[in-house]
Amino acid sequence: MTDRVALYPGTFDPITNGHIDIITRAARLVDRLVIGVAVNIGKGPIFTLEERVELVKAEVTPVALKAGISAEVLPFSTLLIDFAKSVGAKMIIRGLRAVSDFDYEFQMAGMNYRLDSEIETIFLMATERHQFISSRFVKDIASFGGDISSFVPELTNLKTMAKLKGNV
Fold this sequence. Notes:
Helix content: 40-55%
CATH topology: Rossmann fold
Order of helices and strands: EHEHEHEHEHH
Shape: globular
Structural class: alpha/beta
Number of helices: 6
CATH architecture: 3-Layer(aba) Sandwich
CATH superfamily: HUPs
Strand order of the largest sheet: 3-2-1-4-5
């Protein structure tokens, strides 16, 4: 039997507790989880691609160890479906927070299916306490000096606040 391999893509700028929740839950479904960190310059990231990859690795490693799965964090700048194929993924994991996410995600899943019907999109609903968290809101709050500690893991909180204060 082959390993169940999934890809969880995102910009992760910064990685949030909502992302960690989806990763933790996806880890129960697969043997190997690839977290794909998208270049996505259009979103105006505060962290460089390399910084995001390293931060996601630091936050995901304990989750993978606890779940007993293999996890890797890789950058990508290609078409999502092509990246999924290149890492051997048969599933793309997507998190849904609200109905507004569903419309976009539904369209993207349909397009990806047309591009490769062998790769399934799996939707995981955000848990109640994480439904409102988004990286964009976290960056907005942090940029005004607000407390983001309940929205992101501890290391991410420290790195985000230092980055926005110009200390990194």
